[in-house]
């Protein structure tokens, strides 16, 4: 190694170590406090780990009938999976149509999709809730899922990806007699699974972390999601800190597993959109 490059290498590794520590610090605090008592969390004498790890805090979270945490985990998982599948399917078909199917209004429709990205969600929140209410979808899965199924940003990402998709593969499918739908389903999708997985991960994480819309639509306790249930653990009268930290820790476990096993698709997805940074 060149002597002149040693200081630069050391500086880069030092920066990586600092960044890693800062990134992992919130997770350490969450784990430490989740296994402690309220007194150990707020006490003056700080310890790296509690003197006695309270694994019973896990059972306490699920035994709290007011939070109904097991049900909220199921609701969040069902909503995240359903919304992810629906969003990826609709947005990918829209993106493929805008990228590959020539029709008269393709450009205006594409600009209209881009315009939806400039509209703040607060502007459409009340009209969306009125529509859901008129349809009788309050306190229902469809009321939480359907209004947010289509994503203009996801459609845009798919369009950018399909613009760079090899046309030779599509032409081979058309020679075999496939139409646009057949080419999309039998050729494009099987050869784009990495990008589909990347978009699915991003969509699933966003769906899992939703708070305001599920709070307003899922008014009944049986329809609460994880984020809504977490908010009920903190009231003006009482806050069980160890329970809040344990519930938060449990809520991020699915996201951490998804990220660990599919993180390479996130990098691949960004690289394949054709967006230059």
TrEMBL record:
Main localization, broad class: membrane
Start and end residues of each ABC transmembrane type-1 domain: 73-262
Membrane topology: Multi-pass membrane protein
Family annotation (CDD domains): TM_PBP2 (cd06261)
Gene3D superfamilies: MetI-like (1.10.3720.10)
Highest taxon of source: Bacteria
Localization, UniProt: Cell membrane
InterPro entries: MetI-like, MetI-like_sf
Keyword Transferase assigned: no
Transmembrane segments: 12-31, 77-98, 110-132, 144-162, 183-208, 241-262
Keywords: Cell membrane, Membrane, Transmembrane, Transmembrane helix, Transport
Keyword Cell membrane: yes
Assigned protein family: Belongs to the binding-protein-dependent transport system permease family.
Protein name: Carbohydrate ABC transporter permease
Source species taxonomy: Bacteria, Bacillati, Actinomycetota, Actinomycetes, Pseudonocardiales
């Amino acid at each position: 190694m060149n002597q002149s490059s040693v200081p630069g290498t050391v500086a880069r590794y030092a920066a990586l170590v600092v960044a890693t520590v800062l990134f992992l610090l919130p997770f350490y605090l969450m784990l430490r406090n989740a296994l402690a008592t309220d007194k150990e969390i707020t006490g003056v004498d700080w310890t790296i780990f509690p003197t006695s790890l309270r694994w019973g805090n896990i059972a306490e979270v699920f035994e709290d009938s007011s939070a109904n945490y097991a049900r909220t985990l199921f609701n969040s998982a069902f909503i995240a999976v359903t919304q992810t599948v629906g969003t990826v399917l609709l947005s990918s078909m829209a993106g493929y149509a805008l990228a590959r199917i020539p029709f008269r209004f393709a450009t205006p429709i594409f600009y209209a999709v881009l315009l939806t990205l400039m509209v703040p969600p607060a502007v459409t929140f009340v009209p969306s809730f009125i529509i859901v209410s008129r349809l009788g979808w309050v306190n229902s899965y469809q009321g939480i899922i359907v209004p947010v199924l289509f994503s203009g940003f996801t459609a845009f990402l798919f369009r950018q990806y399909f613009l760079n998709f090899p046309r030779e593969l599509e032409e081979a499918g058309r020679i075999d007699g496939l139409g646009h739908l057949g080419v999309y389903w039998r050729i494009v999708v099987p050869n784009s699974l990495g990008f589909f997985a990347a978009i699915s991960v991003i969509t699933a994480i966003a769906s899992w972390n939703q708070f305001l819309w599920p709070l307003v639509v899922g008014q009944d306790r049986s329809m609460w999601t994880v984020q809504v249930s977490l908010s009920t653990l903190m009231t003006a009268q009482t806050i069980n800190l160890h329970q809040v930290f344990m519930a938060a820790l449990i809520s991020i476990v699915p996201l951490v597993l998804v990220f660990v096993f599919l993180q390479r698709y996130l990098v691949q997805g960004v690289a394949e959109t054709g967006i230059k940074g």
